[in-house]
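Quick one from the shared queue. A colleague (R.T.) flagged HAD family hydrolase as missing a structural entry in our internal table.

Convert sequence to structure tokens.
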Amino acid sequence: MTRPLVISDCDEVLLHMVAPFQAWLKAHHDIDFVMESNDFGKAMRYVHDGRAVESREIWRLLDLFFDTQMHTQPAIAGAVDAVGALADRADFVILTNLGDSYRAARTAQLEGVGIKARVFTNQGPKGPALKAILDEYRPTRAVFIDDLPQHHHSAAQLTPEVFRLHLCGEPLLAPHIDCAHKAGHAHARIDTWDHALPWLLARLDEAA
């Protein structure tokens, strides 16, 4: 018998990423990370001369962070308990934009904070991956949670039947991220788990 399905992003939804990345950049690479817009690529500058970090170096540093610092990513407030409550009512899986080589590390990382879930990795827009997951699980009802508006746009185009919650639990990022709900690509924008969980449980109840 199929169940409802929750498909959740990881970074800035379940785990903080930018905050530990910011601290690591400053401590080990003498780089300031300051979000002043929704352009992640413009947030990093060398402390000694204020020069912007080049795109190629940004990607190298991100890979290095995930290679060596995933253990420093704490859970976002309320996320672990919320996942437990959702997993009692639905299948719960992770759809994260990391390379396939990080799947085992991401799985272990989540288990380390108390979240046990199947992890799907992806590159680029999440709509196609989301559709593939739905084709496998064939749930009675599905909810997709992500912090980035472009993924809600992709999901809305390919899987319009899925409820979509735009949630960014990182205060350093949330004020600068365009709202997928205002754009018409998500059904709601809620940035704290205390308020998101009741909304999500209500959506799952509609599957009964």
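The chain has two domains: 5-16+74-205, 18-72.
The chain has a mean pLDDT of 95.
Added to the table.
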